[in-house]
Write a structure and sequence with these properties.
Helices cover 55% and strands 10% of the residues. With 286 residues, the chain is of the alpha+beta class. The chain has two domains: 184 residues, C8orf32 fold (Roll); 86 residues, Serine Threonine Protein Phosphatase 5, Tetratricopeptide repeat (Alpha Horseshoe), CATH 1.25.40.10. The longest helix has 20 residues. It is elongated, with a radius of gyration of 21 Å.
């Protein structure tokens, strides 16, 4: 599936600023928020994605109707249904592709990356009576489910329940052998934090696909939520630079240098500003 197939939705509509700094995240589910972000980027309807997910939920909910309590037995049955019967799974072969990040594509292909699969899994869990949230874990997105006997942690990439020892191994694999699992790492993240993670994953996928304009739309959403995020302003500057919008890139690099003067990348950015300024002068002369 190439980039022109990145969404399963049809009839594009215009969506602007669905995600903004003043949005009430508690008024929406994670799926609604993520589909709103996707709609801004792809230009397709968020409502249709949510409708397609609703049809999927009706099927799963009917197959779990015999379970009265939100306990481990019901959780095991749900994961078996989603990952074995419905055959949702992580896609190692094309991990960084746009089609594995966009919810609409993941829902239709049943393959994706942890953050996209995790958002769909959280929606499914809540629909059948579980309390579930996302954790932006160091090694990848984790779903946390509250059960009568304590929390369960799920790796949404493969649908496996992981214990604290396995989580620590993931931390050490990502941060180094001296890193340790901390209680803070096991705390659920806010919807805003999860949505930022989702949009960042989309941005990285678009950059890898050399769809710089779409990556820039992702950056715009992130800066609406946190206008003073110096790192994101710097990243936007690199995107502007690739699009040969040199003045905008210089402005963003200058802002980053002012906010983070001790950052190791500052000298590189100063050279980039000099080169782009020379290019702007040459354009005016010619």
């Amino acid at each position: 599936m190439e980039l022109d197939e990145q969404s399963t939705l049809e009839e594009p509509v215009i969506n602007t600023n669905l995600i903004h700094e003043g949005i009430d995240f508690d008024a929406y589910s994670l799926l609604q928020l993520a589909s709103m972000a996707e709609a801004e980027i792809t230009g397709h309807s968020a409502i249709e994605l949510q409708h397609n997910m609703r049809l999927q939920l009706i099927v799963i909910k009917s197959q779990l109707a015999s379970y009265n309590e939100a306990n481990m037995d019901k959780l095991t049955a749900l994961l078996n249904n989603v990952y074995h019967v419905q055959n949702f799974r992580g896609d190692w072969k094309a991990f960084f592709k746009v089609k594995n990040a966009l919810l609409s594509s993941v829902l239709s292909r049943r393959k994706g990356v942890p953050i996209s699969l995790g958002i769909l899994l959280i929606e499914t869990l809540k629909e059948v009576g579980f309390s579930a949230d996302g954790i932006c874990f160091p090694s990848g997105f984790i779903v946390k489910v509250e059960l009568p006997d304590g929390p369960a942690y799920i790796d949404p990439f493969n649908g496996e329940i992981v214990d604290l020892m396995q989580l620590e191994l993931k931390v050490r694999g990502q941060l180094g052998n001296h890193a340790r699992l901390t209680p803070e790492m096991c705390q659920a993240d806010s919807k805003e934090t999860v949505i930022k993670r989702y949009v960042n994953v989309l941005k990285a996928a678009y950059i890898q696909a050399e769809s710089i304009e779409l990556a820039l739309l992702c950056s715009d959403i992130l800066l609406r939520l946190d206008p003073e995020d110096a790192l994101e302003v710097r990243d936007r500057g690199f995107l502007f630079q690739q699009l040969e919008c040199y003045q905008l890139a210089c402005n963003d690099f200058t802002y980053f240098i002012e906010q983070c003067p001790e950052d190791p990348i500052v000298n590189l950015l100063k050279r980039q500003i000099k080169q782009m300024s020379d290019e702007l002068v040459a354009q005016v002369i010619h």
